Description:
Layout: H1 2-14, H2 19-26, H3 31-45, H4 49-63, E1 66-67, E2 72-73, E3 78-79, E4 86-87, E5 92-93, E6 97-99, E7 104-106, E8 118-119, E9 123-125, E10 130-132, E11 136-137, E12 141-143, E13 148-149, E14 157-160, E15 165-169
Parallel strand pairs: 1-4, 2-5, 3-6, 4-7, 5-8, 6-9, 7-10, 8-11, 9-12, 10-13, 12-14
Antiparallel strand pairs: 14-15
Amino acid sequence: MLMEDCRRKALCFYGKHDFKSVLRVVFTDGTSAVVFYRLAKAFQQIGLGIIGWILLELNKLFNGCVIGRGVEFGPGFVLMHPIGVVINGGVLGGKNIVIESGVVIGAARNGLPVKVPVLGNDIFIGAGAKVLGGITIGNNVKIGANAVVIHNVPDNVTVVGIPAKVVGKI
C-alpha cells in the first residue's frame, strides 16, 4: 500500500505518477508520516503492536501528527503536510484520501458511546478542516479549508463553512 500512497501523492503534487515523480515525493514532508503509519500497521498485523506503538509515537515527534493505533485507510493515503494533523484511533477511511495540514478527524462526545467519522473513497480534506462525530463522508468529496463537518456528507459534493454546507456538486 505504501507504493500506492506515494503514487497518489505524486499525482497530487506533479499531475503524474511516473518513477521520477514518485521518487521526488518520497523526500517531501508528509511522506515519512505515512511511512511510519504503514509500518506501524504492518507490525500490529504480525503481533508486534508495541513496535507499532513506538513508530506512531515517533511520528508525533518527527512529523507533528497524531494517527491513532486503530486508524484504517486504504491505498492512496496522502498527508500533504503532516504538522497538526490529528486522526482519532477509531477512524475508518477508504482509498485515495488526501489530507492537508492542521486537519482533525475525531470523535464527538454526544453521550456514550463516543463515535468517530467514516470516510469513503476519493476525498480531499483542506487545511485546518475538522471532521467530527459519528458521521459518514461519501465518495468523491472535497472538504474546504477550515470547514467544520458535523453532519453526513453525500457523494460527489464540495462542502465549506462552519458548520459545513454543500456548495457544489462534483
